Amino acid sequence: MERVKRLKINREGIGFFKAILESYEEVGLMTVLDGKAGSIEVTYPSSAEDHLEGIMKDLERFDIVFTEAGDV
Questions:
Q1: 65: which of 15, 17, 26, 58 lies 20 to 30 Å off by Cα?
Q2: DSSP per residue over 11-56, as a string?
Q3: 62 phi and psi, to 5 degrees?
Q4: Who's near 41: CB < 8 A, 6+ residues apart?
């Protein structure tokens, strides 16, 4: 089953997160909804949720902060 997360991220972290996410196959795809506001959407298989959460948690080291904007 596929899931979608809508997130807010600090703007300077958008490109870095996209590059990191794309380096992992089949974890998720990121779409920028509003770059100025830092609004993104990540579509991912439910089986990859723990992996996605781990990547997001790890990026805190680089001062990339995610805020949940709601799941679809």
A1: 26
A2: GGGHHHHHHHHHHSTTS-EEEEEETTTTEEEEEEEGGGHHHHHHHH
A3: -105, 20
A4: 4, 5, 6, 7, 30, 31, 33, 72
**Quick check: 67 and 8 in contact, CB under 8 A?**
yes
pLDDT one digit per residue (tens) for the chain, 72 residues: 999 999 999 999 999 999 999 999 899 999 999 999 999 999 999 999 999 999 999 999 999 999 998 654
pTM of the model as a whole: 0.89
| Rounded Cα–Cα distance for residues 34 and 43 (Å) | 16
How far, in Å, CA of 8 to CA of 14, rounded? Answer: 10
CATH class of 2-71: alpha beta
The whole-angstrom separation of Cα 59 and Cα 40 is 16
